[in-house]
Amino acid sequence: MPLVSPDCPKSFLLVTALAAVAHLPFQEATAASFAENPLPFNLEEPQEGEPEVPVGLQAADDDREPGLPAGLGPAGADDGAGVDSFDRSTRAFREFGGFLDLRSGSRLRDDPDEPQQSLGELRLQLNGKIALEWITARAVVDVVHDYLAEGQELDLDTSEGSIDLRTLDFVVSPVEFADLRIGRQALTWGVGDLLFLNDLFPKDWNAFFLGRDLEYLKAPADVARLSLFFDDVTVDVVYGPRFNADRFLDRRRLSSFDPIAGEISGADTPLPVDRPDRWFVDDELAVRLARTVGSWELAAYGYQGFWKSPEGFDPDLSVALFPRLLSGGVSARGPWRKGILSLEGASYRSIDDPGGDEPYLPNSRWLFLAGYERELTTDLIAGIQYMGTFIRQHEEYLQNLPDGTPAAAASDHLMTLRLSWQNRAQMLRLSLFSMWGITEGDGYLRPHVSYALSDSWRLETGANVLHGDQPHSRFGQLERNTNLWGAVRYSF
Amino acid sequence: MVTSITAIFGLAAVIGGASGDLSVEEIVKRTNHAAYYQGNNGRARVSMVITDGQGRKRERELSILRYDAPGPDGEQKFYLYFHAPADVARMTFLVHKHLDRDDDRWLYIPALDLVKRIAATDKRTSFVGSDFLYEDVSGRQLDQDHHELLKTTENFYLLKHTPKDPDSVKFAHYTMWIHKKSFLPTKVEYSDASGEVYRVMTVGRVETIDGKPTVLEATMEDRRTGSRTVLTYKDPAYDIGVPERVFTERYLRRAPVKYLK
């Protein structure tokens, strides 16, 4: 007991230890053990210095006066015994867990092109992480039984089949100021709330609109990410040797507009695509420079690769294409008037359509986002965003547009509003995310309720309500997929 | 002011500090130091058992790192790594605590690789769903209350704190029993306008770590809901050399195993 103060009677240490073991308030332990303590109270000679605290010390002169907690004895302390008894081996940097998730959803509108049931799956996720000082390795794998997609062959790029490999990566520091993370991983940057400008990492829009957990919005990418941490700036370089496409809306699970047929179609006519998939040729490079100034986070971004969903079309082969894309942008995020202000801008250059006159390729464009989120009252948070998209060569685009193809406006304006609330115990969470397409006159409502029955069991329900008068607009084309879903999840 | 919890870890104190007649301001200052600023940095593993009014139990387990800016008690940085429950395991949380403006807070969700900026500024919201409030854990600004020494007993100073802006909080005042030698608040009681005590924090166990009396167990009880949270600090350590750079986005994404371990 090296830290025992010289003026601390040993008997108090015993009392303290007893109280700690028995989880008794110190006062009671003191009374009990002083009566029954097998060791005479005066076994130890009183030390020089402070007088011994009399037994009656705790006799409170105010009935609300607390007793002394264990450890605040007369010398103010015991020796910290017990601290070392904490089992360091349980300091789990080997962590394993997962969940079992049963999820079902139904369309609320008639859709002649898709089944009534929109979602029906049982998913087992297993995850593990081993972190040592020099390396951290992670694996997350989902074993899925999708009742609506039985008999699919395994494809780890599209998550078809019964295995979805979400994460398999490791991170090391080749030099002190660098982290190198290699493998399959989710990646996110940028400051939008469900709006992505400079984040050109793959998304799973099917999962998003069908009602899977939000974590599935981010499709995994197979990349190497090198992060360099200098004094004033952080540099991230993400290289994907083979194009990581979105898990895009291909009409198999969600009906959408077919520009060739000029109408909405679904599972019977899935979108044929030609995906760039040559290793080290059809590659992607994403770069970010980030620095923090006070409470503000500033960043600049660059990307060279492909439009993440098949925005182009080859009329000769009748397949959708992922045209080449070069993008750059900036963002800022920080506190403003009791809330968080987010600003982001991006320039998309459609490399295969430099003049803007290719009718079947997406035009170059500017994108701007401004968002503001703040607490309205305790536990209620509101967030509002504006996003504007401006086509650069709209005249050329219009001049070359094939007859009968609906024209996109030169500028497109979108607003979002999020309200989220949780109860005090944070077991019940409600959120409503809504998007309003001002230019296209369409919209999207995404209500979500989550209730934790316990640390392990959680019930969830939500909906994806899509509407729009035009069959080709952003949300209007998805209108028939409006759905309601529910889930029960056991986490371990 | 310092209420409970030992800070998100921290509670330690100036030994032998109780001498003579201290002014209220001095007691408040020393208590704040004891509760939140011992050592220049530190680590602890925190367990919380939340028992609601119906007797249902929930548990939280997290590791915490703390860094104090050089100079007098002021700006601090906290890093939290969640171990349990399963649905939040491996999430990390970063706080830059400021005295002159709202704290900066970030949450990292590994499944999305998302660094989320927390917009909430109300410090009187529940800390991870427990009966402790964010403010209990990070500290209440000393200048938000009027402080009054009600009395001095053999072991304690009894202080009463009345908010300068009553509309900003739900309590009308709170009292704090401060252990005279360690300057640890061992019991804090929040009263409403009718004078009824509705929220109570009690310290159950203290140990001396590196010469600093440190709270290892504290309980917060909400008498209105019948809910209570027992918070236990395991394996606390001071001055373990956590550098400031740990409290950045880099380590949100990659846990600083060297210091957590």
Give me the secondary-structure topology.
The complex is a heterodimer of chains A (492) and B (261).
Chain A: H1 10-22, H2 26-36, E1 94-107, E2 117-131, E3 135-146, E4 163-172, E5 178-185, H3 205-210, E6 221-229, E7 234-240, E8 256-258, E9 263-265, E10 273-274, E11 284-293, E12 296-306, E13 312-314, E14 319-321, E15 324-336, E16 339-350, E17 365-377, E18 380-391, H4 394-400, E19 411-422, E20 428-437, E21 442-452, E22 457-468, E23 483-491
Parallel strand pairs in A: 10-14
Antiparallel strand pairs in A: 1-2, 1-23, 2-3, 3-4, 4-5, 5-6, 6-7, 7-11, 8-9, 11-12, 12-15, 13-14, 15-16, 16-17, 17-18, 18-19, 19-20, 20-21, 21-22, 22-23
Helix pairs in contact in A: 1-2
Chain B: H1 24-36, E1 41-51, E2 57-68, E3 76-84, E4 92-97, E5 104-109, E6 114-117, H2 134-138, E7 145-152, E8 156-163, E9 173-179, E10 185-191, E11 197-209, E12 212-222, E13 227-238, H3 249-253, H4 257-260
Antiparallel strand pairs in B: 1-2, 1-13, 2-3, 3-4, 4-5, 5-6, 7-8, 8-9, 9-10, 10-11, 11-12, 12-13
Description of the molecule:
The complex is a heterodimer of chains A (492) and B (261). Chain A has 492 residues and is mostly beta strands. Chain A folds into two domains: 1-86, no CATH class; 99-491, Porin. Chain A has helices spanning 10-22, 26-36, 205-210, 394-400; strands at 94-107, 117-131, 135-146, 163-172, 178-185, 221-229, 234-240, 256-258, 263-265, 273-274, 284-293, 296-306, 312-314, 319-321, 324-336, 339-350, 365-377, 380-391, 411-422, 428-437, 442-452, 457-468, 483-491. Chain A has an 18-stranded antiparallel barrel. In chain A, helix 1 packs across helix 2. With 261 residues, chain B is mostly beta strands. Chain B has one domain (24-260): outer membrane lipoprotein receptor (LolB), chain A, CATH 2.50.20. Chain B has four helices and 13 strands. Chain B has helices spanning 24-36, 134-138, 249-253, 257-260, and strands at 41-51, 57-68, 76-84, 92-97, 104-109, 114-117, 145-152, 156-163, 173-179, 185-191, 197-209, 212-222, 227-238. Chain B has a 13-stranded antiparallel sheet. In chain B, strand 3 (76-84) and strand 4 (92-97) form a beta hairpin. The longest helix of chain B has 13 residues, at 24-36. Chain B starts with 23 loop residues before the first helix and ends with a helix. At the A-B interface, strand 1, strand 3, strand 16 and strand 17 of A face strand 2, strand 6, strand 10, strand 11 and strand 12 of B.
